[in-house]
Design brief:
The chain has 166 residues and is mainly α. 63% of the residues lie in helices and 0% in strands. It is globular and about 50 Å long.
């Protein structure tokens, strides 16, 4: 009888430990998913900024994503992937919408130039992008740019920060 009670006790302990490990594993997987989802948002944000400002940047990314989907996704793609053959000019010689997710060339430009391109558009500069400066405020354009940057791999973002500091 003592052996049966001992065996049942061991099984109960092992079961509890197993459940705890499973819960811990599920939580780690969930944390990893959240971490991957917010990794770039975190990159944009917390370099040299207080935690309260990091929260502000997260809200800015969310706002920029909404504005991007309403105004930019039609041409640049829902995930900023751009036109598949964006390097090939259209028959009229104009540029196609490039990817903005870090696989194109946007990150090679300073923030001032990117803001200017969005504000003034690219018509007359080789592209078809309309000027958004009359539809969106500068703060909204900055939020869109922040969302776009949240799509960039961390290394690309760090390189862009260096370009922007020069």
């Amino acid at each position: 009888m003592k052996n049966i009670i001992f065996i049942i006790s061991v099984i109960a302990i092992v079961s509890a430990c197993s459940k705890e490990q499973s819960d811990t594993s599920q939580q780690a997987t969930a944390n990893s998913t959240v971490s991957k989802t917010t990794a770039n948002v975190a990159a944009i944000k917390t370099y040299d900024m207080p935690a309260s400002q990091a929260d502000f940047e997260f809200a800015r990314v969310a706002r920029g994503g909404k504005l991007y989907k309403e105004n930019c996704a039609k041409c640049h793609g829902a995930n900023a992937e751009g036109t598949p053959d964006w390097r090939v000019r259209k028959p009229d010689g104009k540029l196609k919408p490039p990817p903005l997710n870090g696989t194109g060339h946007a990150w090679h430009h300073s923030k001032a130039l990117l803001m200017s391109i969005i504000t003034e558009g690219s018509i007359g500069k080789g592209g078809d992008m309309p000027a958004w400066g009359k539809k969106l405020t500068q703060d909204e354009i900055d939020a869109v740019l922040t969302w776009v940057q949240s799509k960039w791999p961390e290394e690309i973002y760090k390189n862009w920060l260096e370009i922007n500091r020069r």
